[in-house]
């Protein structure tokens, strides 16, 4: 157990809908990262937050947004969902001054 | 994309043999590298890391080798066990950045 908690574990929704994925980082970790993993593909970096502020942005679509709250948990919002958005979405966290990032178990999103 | 791969390379090894998984990284400015293990339906699990000022680091049954000249990273697993069956990813990070770039991944199959 990495200490990173993600909910929900599984989610099935229809095209055009909006969902929110939630992440609680490891205790004390200030940085949160979001990654997308499609079937048989590598991990695509979406976005990173540090202590509530956006720090780095990757290949995140405009339909997607994220935020990190004062209690350090983070949410990834996916809107106007398309079939191609079906994937595993991972959250990861790291401690201040440390390079290693630890992943949660992921949220499996299926868009039908 | 940075790590697109519908067909993961697969390494099949006999139980008890040593495994060597290779990774070519892309950025000569990368100074920190991590190996992750991902079992089916689970999040990537940290195995071992290495900084660019080292060329070898050992953990429990695992060794990471770094060759900066040819931008190559390898993970050696000693006495491979059935529980080692998974997809293994390398990740690189450049100094002063917060973005981790993941490799395509290699599927390790351990044969009984």
Percent helix of chain B: under 10%
The chain-level structural class of chain B is mainly beta
Overall 3D shape of chain B: globular
Radius of gyration of chain A: 13 Å
Find the count of extended strands of chain A (DSSP E, 2+ residues).
11
Main beta sheet of chain B: 6 strands, mixed
Radius of gyration of chain B from CA coordinates: 14 Å
The helix/strand series of chain A, from N terminus to C terminus, equals EEEEEEEEEEE
Instruction: Briefly note the structural class of the backbone of chain A.
Output: mainly beta
Quote the average pLDDT of chain B: 90
Structure in a nutshell:
The complex is a heterodimer of chains A (112) and B (112). Chain A is mainly β.
Strand-helix topology:
The complex is a heterodimer of chains A (112) and B (112).
Chain A: E1 5-7, E2 10-13, E3 19-24, E4 31-37, E5 43-50, E6 53-57, E7 64-68, E8 74-78, E9 87-94, E10 102-103, E11 107-111
Parallel strand pairs in A: 2-11
Antiparallel strand pairs in A: 1-3, 3-8, 4-5, 4-9, 5-6, 7-8, 9-10, 9-11
Chain B: E1 10-14, E2 19-24, E3 30-38, E4 45-51, E5 56-58, E6 62-67, E7 72-77, E8 86-94, E9 100-102, E10 106-111
Walk me through the structure.
The complex is a heterodimer of chains A (about 110) and B (about 110). Chain A is built from no helices and 11 strands. With about 110 residues, chain A is mostly beta strands. In chain A, the strands form 2 sheets. In chain A, strands 2, 4, 5, 6, 9, 10 and 11 form a 7-stranded mixed sheet that branches. Chain A has strands spanning about 5, 10-15, 20-25, 30-35, 45-50, 55, 65-70, 75-80, 85-95, 100-105, 105-110. The N and C termini of chain A lie far apart (about 30 Å). In chain A, a hairpin with a 5-residue loop joins strand 4 (about 30-35) and strand 5. Helix content of chain B is about 0%, strand content about 55%. Mean pLDDT of chain B is about 90; it is low at about 1-5. Chain B is an all-beta fold and about 110 residues long. Chain B contains no helices and 10 strands. In chain B, the strands form 2 sheets. In chain B, strands 1, 3, 4, 8, 9 and 10 form a 6-stranded mixed sheet that branches. The radius of gyration of chain B is 14 Å and the shape is globular. Classes of the chains: A mainly beta (about 110), B mainly beta (about 110).
